[in-house]
């Protein structure tokens, strides 16, 4: 009994630490198994820190001399340092990269980013990787180490520049081309358009028309609208978008222009908005994050005003706080997998009226 008694305290600490870790894990993560990786991240970091604290507590309770206890703690520190030193391609490196991305904040949920050959809209930020939704609606998981070791281009949420490059012959003066390109950009919905002459080639002049797009979530549609508007505007004024070298393939008369004949009137049916289908998950994640932040700010303001509020107002404020917390709980529980699988493009389409204009 005397041999067992000294080990009872560390055994009790180990059991208590295990019970606490299991309870916290169940409360923060297991109970919310369907939480997105973005919301799991701080919980997982907290669990990692709590595990290290539990391990140190067990070592401190061992019935050993001070020098041996210090050696064990030093061994743990040495082991952690070794893992960090040799983790360039391991899980720990992605963990450290994930923490670094949270500190530097090069992008947020819902932002358009380009890294390497990948382009898309951020839909989730996880502990070890970041998920983006590509233009073909695919979900691409990019390791966090890849994101910190390669340049990341983020399209600013306050607006971006949309550009289109085209080549026209020398037979049309640039003073005639530039106003038409500006007009085309304006009709496509872009603001403050401008034209640059990029190159004087052997057979053609290269122009670039650019304009400011305020609502970046309609990026794909805006590019298509600009191309369509340039075609319609130039052809409508008798200017062919054709290099003179075209005659090497099929000889045409000097008065012959390659301009398509205007067909039937466009259908009046509503056109499909590409972004509603392509970036559905990223859009939902962005809206959810915004609503959560707004709710948290509202609850904090209500709680701060509760102290100085009149008695008749306190009950109303408490009710609003309770409703806000209930809404936060609902937002923390994402839709079930079956519900997501059953989503149709029509069901996930945005109802916002601030959408790009189609011609």
Explain what the structure shows:
This protein has 359 residues and is of the alpha+beta class. It folds into four domains: 5-86; 106-154, SH3 type barrels (Roll); 160-248, 2-Layer Sandwich (Alpha-Beta Plaits); 279-348. The protein is 50% helix and 16% strand. The protein has twelve helices and eight strands. The protein has helices spanning 8-28, 37-60, 66-85, 91-104, 144-149, 174-187, 219-236, 274-278, 280-306, 311-332, 337-341, 345-348, and strands spanning 112-115, 118-125, 129-134, 139-143, 152-154, 160-169, 191-200, 204-213. The protein has a five-stranded antiparallel beta sheet with strand order 4-3-2-1-5. α9 (280-306) runs antiparallel to α10 (311-332). The longest helix is centred in the C-terminal third of the chain and has 27 residues, at 280-306. It is elongated, with a radius of gyration of 30 Å. The termini are far apart. The relative contact order is 0.09. The model is unreliable at 335-353 (pLDDT under 50).
